[in-house]
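ok so for the tutorial part 2 we go from a plain amino acid sequence to predicted structure tokens. step 1 is just haveing the sequence, like this:
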Amino acid sequence: MPLPQVAACCDIGGTKALVGFVDRQGNILAQERYLSPSGREPVELASEVATHLHELAARSRIGWQQVAGLGYSTAGMMDVESGIIFASPNQGTWRDVPFKNLLQEELGLPAWIEMDANAAALGEAWKGAGIGTKYFVYIIIGTGIGSGILVSGKVWRGWRGTAGEIGHTTIEPDGPLCSCGNFGCLEALAAGPAIALRAQGAIQQGRKTIITELSSGHEITAEMVFKAARLKDLVALEILSKTVEYLGIGLANVITLLSPQVIALGGGVAVGGADLLLEPLRQSVARRCGSWVDLQSTRIVLSELGEYAGLLGAARLVWGV
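step 2 — the prediction. this is what the tokens look like for a chain of 321 residues:
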């Protein structure tokens, strides 16, 4: 009797990677998390992924003949049909890289690639917060901000396949410079680095805040701001209030434009600061939506799968469910 097939999958972030094997029912059979530095050449990264998957399969007693294919998730602009990554912020200077072909050559398997927010949306719709939802949006709020839009379980890509870049919608026209070259993008105002930058600015202005003590000479992070806010630090609370305002504008725009049933929030900022951000964000969105919006039936919730959303979404690419 032949052994059951499994999907190999990986989710490559800015500093960490998650690889694993998932069965047709969405059960994670094995997984490994490891540090994955940015700025590597395409061939080098494809080889790294192949090495980690082969080693994980051997440790987990998964025969390579069982592996049906690879699903690959990462941040970037890409054409999923041709498998070309136009640009990848995690890898710096990549331009028009035929990465799907590189993966297939390294692994000897069919491969599928997907933008990380789309993969996470697919994972949440399969096994998490989006189960049974026809109109679903998943938003990553972390080092950057992006979204995956699903209609009847299918990714809505737009004309060139790059729909969902909510992080690069303009919220404040005269706002700070964004990594994309525009000014006042949601990402430049409400992602983790933006929260940390506002805290740094407050300290440089001489404002009294316990963030100074929490950082102790180290680089300030959004997590430090969350910790200070939980201690009722006024500067931290002010920073998060502004963050909620920006996110509220962004999410209200999503609801007004797309009318989703569920918006699920994931990423380090959304999850790490959920106790401080989620309810104020719901209230901010409610204030900004028109009377025609059914806010009772439009839910803003946290991701149920956490960091495994992208991994499961990548596996779903292989199974085609």
